[in-house]
Amino acid sequence: MTPFDEALLRMRESFARQAKDRALRLERALIEGDRSALVDVAHKIAGIAGMVGFPDLGERAAQVEDLADRQVSSADLAAEGRRLAKELFELGSIHQPEGKDD
Q1: What is the pTM of this model?
Q2: 22 with 86: CB under 8 angstroms?
Q3: Rounded distance between C-alpha atoms, residue 88 and residue 53, angstroms
Q4: Which residues of 69-90 are buried (b: 16+ CB within 10 A; e: fewer)?
Q5: In the record, which positions carry Phosphohistidine (predicted)?
Q6: Taking the domain 7-94, which CATH number applies?
Q7: Distance of alpha carbon 71 from alpha carbon 56, whole angstroms
Q8: Per-residue confidence at 79, pLDDT binned at 50, 70, 90?
Q9: Is 98 left (phi over 0), alpha (psi -120 to 50) or beta?
Q10: Pure H helices in the chain
Q11: Of 53, 77, 80, 92, which residue is least crowded by CB atoms under 10 Å?
Q12: How far is it, in rounded angstroms, from Cα 64 to Cα 76?
């Protein structure tokens, strides 16, 4: 494995470990109706996810960012945002360090 591949693997693992926290921030923004925070969180997820090998997650986050930015209905935004949060929770659960339960 090249040094670049090793660095990419570390970034991918770090993103996965932080997925639950990102999902919680996303859900908090949805609950509070804070579109600005939602755009910010989704934008960060979209950029990082695609870069470290989770392109589908990155695309979903970009879609949530776009919906929040375009001021679509709260119901449509909430549905997509919750779908993204669920995927993040699942990713975080899969990559949970051994011996650590939430």
Answers
A1: 0.84
A2: no
A3: 14
A4: eeeeeeeebbebbeebbebbbe
A5: 43
A6: 1.20.120
A7: 23
A8: very high
A9: beta
A10: 3-17, 19-32, 35-51, 55-69, 74-94
A11: 53
A12: 10
Cα–chain center distance at 36: 16
Place of tokens 């979209």: 46
* Number of CB atoms found within 10 A of residue 91's CB: 20
* Residue 55 near residue 49 (C-beta atoms within 8 A): yes
Q: Report the length, in residues, of the chain.
A: 102
What's the average model confidence in pLDDT over 82-96?
89
Tell me, what's the pLDDT at 74?
Answer: 86
What confidence tens digit (pLDDT) does each residue in 5-56 have? 899 899 999 999 999 999 999 999 999 999 999 999 999 999 999 889 899 9
